[in-house]
Fold:
Amino acid sequence: MQLIDTHCHLDFEVFAVDRAQVMARAQALGVEHFIVPAVQQSSWQSLVALFHQQDCVDIALGMHPMFMSAHSEAHIEMLDHALEQQRPLAVGEIGLDFYAPESDRQGQLLLFRAQLQLAAKHQLPVILHVRKAHDEVLQCLRDIPVIAGIVHAFNGSIQQAQHYIGMNFKLGFGGMLTYSHSSKLRALAQQLTLNAIVLETDAPDMTVMQHRGQRNSPEYLPYCLKALAAVRQQSEEVIAEATSENARQVLGLN
Ligand SMILES: [Zn+2]
Structure:
């Protein structure tokens, strides 16, 4: 079984002491490849270093909407250069997060649209973070089409999912599926066509039920696989093969 964790923040400080061991344990459980998206400009250099050190790691470069105070206009130009020079797999993680009422919506929209433009310019897929803003994100994607992408930790409606799928996007599902109270999310994961789904942990956040309260890790991706297989009443082998193929296809991984 070859699984791909399409969203894990292995560069974060919480993995500083045992990053290599975490990756080795995950690989022993069949999690063969890790996609690590950036959250802010100051992390790009260490992400690029991680990418060069580890064959099993691919990276995305970008600016996350929940870290607005870390971003500046100069970073847009720097991202343009970094995409040219480093050729990461994707632009990410980018998007809109309107969860907090006090969020800087105008600033987020400007930043998101600028990064979509760069993704279009460099012909790269995007890794999206979207909370309480799917309709706004879909509108931005209609205005500024990109080649493909993943909506990470998808939490929208089936209709919104169909709109993303029509724009060559896959939807990321992870640890939340392991909780029995996630009935809306489980229903969605059951209804969607399998070729629209990719697996992710979002480590170190959103830990699976089996390790609740602990640091999340890509080594827990098999729990997400198990939960998705149970919800869809399909075998783990079928789900593993399809979701990994979906990830390879959408991100242009060989
Ligand atoms: Zn993330």
In short: The chain has one domain: 3-251. The CA atoms of residues 57 and 99 lie 30 Å apart. The longest helix spans residues 105-121.
